[in-house]
């Protein structure tokens, strides 16, 4: 229940930041062509929002195991081999995401008073939102690894996660 709420919240955050990017870009195009003016910091803003959306998206795909991958070896392996591959992949993913999350938080602490070009919005706000996404990604990677170790599965392929997955894919 808690994991489902965390996943729903993570999906919502990622989707909202993608929506903000689309609105900011579309709004800038509209005012640029209609009024020969541009939204201040639209470019810096979309870059920062994209970084945030990516980290939150990484959190989703890490837990669900739905990232883009070529599963030729996994498909040819038997159930025991698949479990081994999944455990190895989850362990490696966790081993990379924990230091990544740590380093993004270090970056947050090192931004000082840096701001965006036009409006001087503190970069720390954007980096903090991205760092939160990286932290959620590391936590979800750990949860995925624990579920794999326990043998908990939610879908027909024997992989944990996968809200909305079918045997043919997401």
Automatic annotation (TrEMBL):
Transmembrane segments: 12-35, 47-73, 85-105, 125-146
Location, primary (coarse class): membrane
Keywords assigned by UniProt, alphabetized: Cell inner membrane, Cell membrane, Membrane, Transmembrane, Transmembrane helix, Transport
Magnesium as UniProt keyword: no
Localization annotation: Cell inner membrane
Keyword Iron annotated: no
Name listed for the protein in its UniProt record: TRAP transporter small permease protein
């Amino acid at each position: 229940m808690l994991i489902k709420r965390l996943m729903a919240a993570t999906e919502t955050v990622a989707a909202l930041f993608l929506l903000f990017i689309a609105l900011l870009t579309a709004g800038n195009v509209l005012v640029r062509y209609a009024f020969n003016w541009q939204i201040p910091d639209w470019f810096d803003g979309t870059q920062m929002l994209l970084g945030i959306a990516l980290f939150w998206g990484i959190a989703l795909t890490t837990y669900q195991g739905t990232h883009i991958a070529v599963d030729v070896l996994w498909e040819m392996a038997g159930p025991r081999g698949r479990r081994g591959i999944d455990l190895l992949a989850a362990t490696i993913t966790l081993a990379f995401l924990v230091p990544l999350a740590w380093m993004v938080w270090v970056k947050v602490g090192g931004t000082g008073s840096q701001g965006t070009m036009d409006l001087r919005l503190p970069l720390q706000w954007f980096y903090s939102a991205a760092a939160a996404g990286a932290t959620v990604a590391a936590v979800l990677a750990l949860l995925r690894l624990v579920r794999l170790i326990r043998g908990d599965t939610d879908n027909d392929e024997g992989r944990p996660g996968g809200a909305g997955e079918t045997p043919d894919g997401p």
